[in-house]
Fold these 2 entries.
Entry 1:
Amino acid sequence: MKSIFWLFTVLCFGWSSAARADALVQNLPADGSWISFHVILKVEDQEVRAVWSIRSVGVKTVDGVPCRWIELESVEGPKHMIFKLQIPEKEFGKGKNPLGSARKVWAKFPGDAPAKEYSNLAEVDLPLSIIIEGPTADIKRRADKEPIKWQNGQFDSDVFEGVHRKELFGSKYELTHVVWKHADVPFGVTAMKQTLKMQFGEQSRLGKLDMSLKEFGKDAKSALPQVQ
């Protein structure tokens, strides 16, 4: 995901976490569950396309605390980026941000270098940690469900929206989120749209991210089995 997020890094530099957000991932599915999304990221006149996946690839009890191994993967042509997170199961649930509460985070970048351990997700990929944190203000649920179509049909999904605002060193940032959710898909998310506006002096930048359901299943295997 580092390869796709370098554009957002320019826009998000210096952004720190605010109040508790409505995080993108909150639900904990059965171990072995996975889901993948088509992703389009645009910043000004540049566009990147990728496939993102999230999967549960193991259960481990650490100091008496049940934990899950959760993997995030981005495939952008021949480039693969993988994160593997050890997250206490108690950190999942409504109003929580499990991906931001990992006990351990490993990352494998494109190339032959081995996976490396980091203290948290923000240390290795700040823009990604902001995107999954979700909105922190003006959070609301739309009155009507909306259909999210995919290759095997559609899910009539609940729609949530909100914003994440920040002012830092004279620059103003606003990240607008719209997230579609359905209980029948792993991790509960069927689609997402985000728009990032950054204003610094007379200059402004605009970034857009569009994530749509590709497929899902129950037979997930770890891409980093050596990390246990």
Entry 2:
Amino acid sequence: MRFQILPNDTNSDFIASGRPPTSAATSVAFTDTAERGGLLSGEVQITRASDELVLSSYVLYWGSGPRTKLNSAPIATLSKSLSKLSVQIPASTAKPQGATHLLVVTKNSAGEMATGVGAPITDSFGVPVQVTGLSGSVVLNNTRPDGTLEVLNLSANGSFNFPNPTSVGATYSVQIKTQPAEQTCALYNNNGKISAMPATNVVVRCSEFWVLPQNSASFTSIASNQVRAVFAVGETIYAATSQGLSISTNGGNTWVNNTTGYGVGLYASGTTFYRGNVGYFFVKNPLIPVR
């Protein structure tokens, strides 16, 4: 068997019998640096084949397995003449449905190697947090699987992530370290395991509290019931009325009477609510803030 050497062409092939290469890349490595689940970012590093004689380039694909292409559209093609074989996955690249690996195959003018070398995609990201109703700042702690604490400072509503990457199935335990100055925030789904991406695991809902004297507020939407106090968490409103405790989940358009009897004040600890019958009461009212 003879090989033909084509001079002065760094991308030319050393082709034997017109066949695709049989030498695979030695290895492929990828670490996801994206902060959000379902998104990828980072550098794919390819280690050259031990024998590059009959190949001209390396082709990177999304893989549905360690040796199988997800589809026929390449992510990138790299000439073997490059000094460094690497591909940068742009920030916030959505992971294609069904993609489990990054797959590299070698290529020459006769075609691509039948199978390639794959690196698993580990979608690493910080514990996701969704914040609503926040007008100040709140500080959260998360206990990581190894027992260490990480801190997340929040001063806006929206989607956020704790700083240290983790992966699906990892445990988390989030607590509020510091409440806002004039609000109280409640946590939902703050203990458990990271679910499949894209995911928002921990929810922080904050409400504003305002103080009004007894008998000073009334809501016509609760018919003739005299409202003594109102407390809101997220989109749910709790009202202590002369007929008991009423709850609305649509901004006060309709109400459900959960109890009967005289109600005057409300107090909340997490998602547990208590009614009082004397003194001043927490009422959501834009005129008189708590001091």
